[in-house]
Amino acid sequence: MTQVTVGHQANGHSNKLEKKAATTDKVASPGDEQLVLNTIRCLAADLCQQYKGGHPGTVMGAAAIGIALWRYEMRYNPANPEWFNRDRFILSAGHACLFQYIFLHLSGYEAWSLDQVKKYHSPATKGSMAAGHPEIEYPGIEVTTGPLGQGISNAVGMAIASKQLAATYNKDDLKPIDNKIWCFTGDGCLQEGVGQESISLAGHLGLDNLILVYDNNSVTVDGRIDNCFTEDTSAKLVAQGWHVIDVYDGSNDLAAILEGFDKAKQLKAKPVFLNIRTVIGYSSRKANTGPAHGQALGDEEVAYVKTQLGFRPEEKFVIPQRVYEYFSECRTKGGEAEADWNVLFKQYQEKYPGDYKELSQRIKGEWASEGWDALLPSKADLPQAAQPTRKSSGIVVQALVPKFNSFVAGSADLLESTFVSFKDQVEFQKPDSGLGDYTGRQIRFGIREFAMVGLGNGIAAYQKGMFIPIMSTFFMFWIYAAPAARMAALQGLRFIGIATHDSIGIGEDGPTHQPIALASFYRALPNINLIRPADAEECMGMWQLALDDKSKDTPSIFALSRQPVPLLDGSDRSKVQLGAYVVHGRDVEEPELTIIATGAEVARAIETAKLLQTIKRVRVVSMPSQRHFDQQSPEYRESVLKQTSSLVVAIEAWASYGWARYAHASLSMHTFGHSAPQQQLYEYFGFEPDNMATKIDSWAASWKSKGRLPGLGEFEELLLGYVRH
Amino acid sequence: MTQVTVGHQANGHSNKLEKKAATTDKVASPGDEQLVLNTIRCLAADLCQQYKGGHPGTVMGAAAIGIALWRYEMRYNPANPEWFNRDRFILSAGHACLFQYIFLHLSGYEAWSLDQVKKYHSPATKGSMAAGHPEIEYPGIEVTTGPLGQGISNAVGMAIASKQLAATYNKDDLKPIDNKIWCFTGDGCLQEGVGQESISLAGHLGLDNLILVYDNNSVTVDGRIDNCFTEDTSAKLVAQGWHVIDVYDGSNDLAAILEGFDKAKQLKAKPVFLNIRTVIGYSSRKANTGPAHGQALGDEEVAYVKTQLGFRPEEKFVIPQRVYEYFSECRTKGGEAEADWNVLFKQYQEKYPGDYKELSQRIKGEWASEGWDALLPSKADLPQAAQPTRKSSGIVVQALVPKFNSFVAGSADLLESTFVSFKDQVEFQKPDSGLGDYTGRQIRFGIREFAMVGLGNGIAAYQKGMFIPIMSTFFMFWIYAAPAARMAALQGLRFIGIATHDSIGIGEDGPTHQPIALASFYRALPNINLIRPADAEECMGMWQLALDDKSKDTPSIFALSRQPVPLLDGSDRSKVQLGAYVVHGRDVEEPELTIIATGAEVARAIETAKLLQTIKRVRVVSMPSQRHFDQQSPEYRESVLKQTSSLVVAIEAWASYGWARYAHASLSMHTFGHSAPQQQLYEYFGFEPDNMATKIDSWAASWKSKGRLPGLGEFEELLLGYVRH
Question: By the CB < 8 Å criterion, does B657 face chain A?
Answer without folding.
Answer: yes
